[in-house]
Design brief:
Blueprint lengths: L17 H5 L33
């Protein structure tokens, strides 16, 4: 079984990290869709004839 998680962390821009924060793509308030996956166990029963052998 496995699953995926996403976590978004926001950090303030300070004088110490201003150069790194301002380089790269433009930050916006636009919505972004991220598809995550999860596995779920599936259990089912099947009818069977009992042959009396203790099996």
């Amino acid at each position: 079984m496995r699953h995926e998680e996403a976590r978004i962390e926001r950090e303030p821009i300070t004088e110490a990290n201003r150069g790194a924060a301002m380089s790269g793509e433009t930050i916006s308030e636009a919505e972004h869709e991220v598809t995550l996956h999860v596995e779920r166990p599936v259990v089912h029963t099947e009818p069977s004839r009992w042959n009396g052998c203790g099996w």
